[in-house]
Write a sequence for this structure.
């Protein structure tokens, strides 16, 4: 890795950490950069998952005020995220690498659609006062969080968008409190997958370290001042780099 490539990976990590705290989908920033510097798709995904854990930690800490009285909810949904994330990580390491390369373009396109429609979901939730049919979301939310965890452990782009959409539709609460829960659930998925990868997969440690430092700084930025960043510009950037990643995978 050249110094310029290292700088690009660090900057991508910082951008991903910021975006993940605000809306999710930071992987659509880091993953294409890792592909561009020549990492194989599975190695890029594994290294990216490990590197984004510190950013998830700093983002969760930044939202600790909104988490103060949600322990029961975090235990219930966090257990679903942990089990789902572990299953997704197992699938990534047991399915052939060719399967990952074939599936991921479709997953990225799905993630891009979610990124684009997320503002409509947020407006719909706000229009209902953040309320839905059940104060805790019921078993439907637990099942949805588990499925999102499987997706997150396998690839993870826009899992935060998926979680916010699920909670917005099924949970009765304030959007900022749901965003705080989203950050913790994404942290759990990334962390359990990262621990599993430590023992089962090849990791590019330099790339993971650069993303880790960048994402930790970006997570703090996202928690403190990220809401001031133009959301339209952020989503536009995500869509552009996501499409670059799709092209890179399809022509590789």
């Amino acid at each position: 890795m050249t110094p310029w490539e290292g700088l690009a990976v660090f900057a991508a990590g910082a951008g991903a950490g910021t975006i993940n705290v605000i809306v999710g989908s930071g992987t659509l920033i880091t993953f294409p950069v890792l592909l561009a510097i020549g990492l194989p798709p599975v190695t890029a995904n594994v290294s990216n998952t490990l590197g984004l854990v510190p950013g998830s930690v700093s983002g969760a800490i930044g939202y600790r005020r909104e988490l103060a009285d949600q322990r029961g909810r975090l235990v219930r949904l966090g257990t679903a995220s942990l089990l789902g994330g572990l299953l997704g990580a197992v699938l990534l390491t047991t399915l052939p690498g060719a399967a990952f390369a074939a599936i991921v373009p479709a997953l990225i396109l799905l993630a891009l659609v979610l990124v684009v429609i997320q503002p409509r979901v947020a407006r719909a939730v706000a229009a209902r006062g953040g309320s839905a049919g059940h104060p805790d979301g019921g078993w439907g939310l637990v099942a949805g969080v588990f499925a999102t965890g499987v997706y997150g452990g396998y690839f993870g782009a826009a899992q935060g968008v998926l979680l916010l959409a699920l909670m917005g539709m099924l949970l009765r609460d304030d959007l900022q409190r749901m965003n705080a829960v989203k950050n913790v659930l994404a942290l759990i998925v990334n962390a359990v997958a990262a621990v599993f990868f430590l023992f089962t997969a090849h990791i590019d440690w330099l790339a993971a370290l650069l993303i880790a430092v960048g994402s930790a700084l970006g997570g703090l930025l996202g928690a403190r001042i990220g809401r001031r960043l133009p959301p339209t510009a952020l989503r536009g950037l995500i869509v552009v780099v996501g499409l670059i990643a799709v092209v890179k995978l399809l022509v590789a």
Notes: The chain has ten helices and no strands.
